[in-house]
Amino acid sequence: MARQGVWQLQKLILNYCEFSGSSRGARVFVEKLWPEFTAGNPQLDATLHVHPGRHPNLTAQYLNGRVRTVGLRNEDPDEIMRQAILLRSSTGRKAALQVKTRQVSRNPSIQGPWTPAVQDALKQKQPLGA
């Protein structure tokens, strides 16, 4: 993602194995989609690393120094392209905490503040309204 005209992703590294089954999608991605991806992103230093016997992954290095790694084990080439675009489009910042909405129920809670009447009702085992 570009912030004030500067792309935040500096380097994208694709690690894969040339013979393992879990890297099959990564090998197809390298053959068919990688040249298209690198040509469409000239601002990006995109490199390939062969790691024999290891599962494939994408490693992204951002301007702020953060490094994000995404595992690509048994993924198809389209999913790998989606992950590469997602890494390119993110800023490299930590994910902010999501503000959760309060849970609303149709049935109001029977729990409430404690009062002396509650304790008396529990001792006598009778409803509070009586």
TrEMBL record:
Tell me which InterPro entries the record gives: Ribosomal_mL43, Ribosomal_mL43/mS25/NADH_DH, Thioredoxin-like_sf
Start and end residues of each stretch annotated as Disordered: 97-130
Principal location listed in the UniProt entry = mitochondrion
- Name the residue ranges with Polar residues bias: 100-112
What is a biological process (GO) this protein takes part in?
mitochondrial translation
The listed locations are:
Mitochondrion
Give this protein's Gene Ontology molecular function annotations. structural constituent of ribosome
GO CC terms, sorted:
mitochondrial large ribosomal subunit
Keywords of this protein's UniProt record, alphabetized? Mitochondrion, Ribonucleoprotein, Ribosomal protein
Q: Which residues form the Ribosomal protein/NADH dehydrogenase domain?
A: 18-91
Q: Which Gene3D superfamilies match?
A: Glutaredoxin
SMART domains the UniProt entry points to: L51_S25_CI-B8
Q: Which family does it belong to?
A: Belongs to the mitochondrion-specific ribosomal protein mL43 family.
What is the protein name for this chain? Large ribosomal subunit protein mL43
Biological source species: Auxenochlorella protothecoides
